Amino acid sequence: MTISRREYDFQAARHRLEGKAKSAGEKLTTIDDAVARVKNGDHVAFGGCLFLAHSLALVRALLRRRPTGLSISRNLMCYEGEWCMVAGAVDKIVTSWMGIGLPWGLSKIHREYVESGRVSMEEWSHLALGLRFRAAAMGVSFLPSLTMMGSSLVDVGGSKIIDCPYTGEKLLAVPALFPDVALLHVHRADRFGNCQIDGYPHMDSDIARAAATVVVTAEEIVSEEEIRLHPDRTVIPGFAVDALVHVPYGSLSPRVLRALRRRPRPLLHLCRRHQPARRGRRAGLPRPLRLRSGYPCGIPLALRGDRARRRRATRPGARVVSGPAHGVTSNELLAVMGSRELKDNTTVFAGVGAPMLASGLAQRMHAPLLTMVIEGGIVGRSGSQARSPSPPTRCARPIAPRCCPASRTPSSSPSAAFSTWASSGAPRSTATATSTRAPSAAATTSRRCACPARGANDIISLCREVIILTVHEKRRFTDTVDFITSPGWLSGRDARRKSGLLFGGVGRVVTTMGVFGFDPESRQMRLEALHTGVSVDEVKANTGFDVLVSDALTTTKPPTDEELGILRMMDPARQFL
Question: What pTM was computed for the model?
Answer without folding.
Answer: 0.72
